[in-house]
Write a structure and sequence with these properties.
Layout lengths: L16 E6 L2 H10 L10 E8 L3 H17 L3 E7 L9 H5 L3 E8 L6 H21 L6 E6 L2 E6 L5 H5 L13 E5 L27 H11 L9
Antiparallel strand pairs: 1-6, 1-7, 2-4, 2-5, 3-4
Helix pairs in contact: 2-4
Length: about 230
């Protein structure tokens, strides 16, 4: 839907574009080798894509919160990786709001099954988000936090995606699926967080009932329970 992708006055800052892929195992095998870390079998490695605050002190505070919740869940923290990017391809407005983009690499505890691992990662992400909110770190965002998928996105137009994220040009970055979307202008102001795709979907229309949906879910929270959670 390129014809619906709005572009700002600088002719380079778009509403946002991105891609969801499977976790590229061969690619991250190279990354682990660079970390001098032991190999991690498919399904055991997890990667969190993190948009950290621009200010160094706030970024460090956000990283501490993320690490504490990972360790609390007894997930092994392998390390942090700076995602290689080329900010020079961005439009002026996109560059001014560019977050620090890092990936946190984790491995599955031996006591947790692969299915339970993905649920655990979901709960860890939600705990991180709650703590970030309480700490006043709303400028930290997690595009993906999973052992299955990875999201690369930003305040981009479609052709900038592979130019900005150098990982996507690596020949070892292989995936059996890819969901790409360029977000077109709706009734929200474009930013890095709201760029498409989201963690589990891309949407092609306006979502105008967000507050109402949240209120309905809050009203039902007392009735929601599951042994899996």
């Amino acid at each position: 839907v390129t014809h619906r992708g709005a572009v700002s006055a600088d002719a380079k800052t778009g509403d946002g574009a991105g891609v969801t892929t499977q976790l590229p195992q061969a690619f991250f095998a190279k990354v682990l080798d660079q970390f001098h870390a032991s190999a991690v079998a498919p399904g055991e490695l997890a990667v969190g894509m993190i948009f950290l605050p621009r200010e160094a002190a706030r970024a460090e505070q956000a990283q501490r919160i993320i690490e504490e919740e990972i360790q609390r869940a007894k997930i092994a923290l392998i390390g942090w990786r700076d995602v290689p990017t080329r900010p020079e391809v961005l439009g002026e407005q996109a560059a001014l709001s560019l977050p620090r983009i890092r990936q946190v690499l984790m491995s599955r505890p031996s006591t947790v099954s692969k299915e339970a691992y993905e649920r655990l990662l979901y709960m860890v992400r939600r705990r991180i988000e709650r703590h970030l909110e309480l700490a006043g770190l709303a400028d930290c965002y997690i595009p993906s936090f999973s052992s299955r998928i990875l999201v690369y996105k930003g305040l981009l137009v479609a052709p900038q995606l592979e130019q900005f994220y150098q990982d996507l040009c690596d020949p070892d970055y292989a995936s059996a699926l890819a969901v790409f979307h360029q977000r077109y202008s709706t009734n929200t102001f474009p930013n890095w967080f709201l760029a498409q795709p989201f963690r589990y979907l891309s949407h092609n229309g306006e979502i105008n009932t967000l507050q109402g949906n949240r209120n309905w879910m809050r009203a039902r929270e007392a009735e929601l329970s599951s042994s899996l959670w």
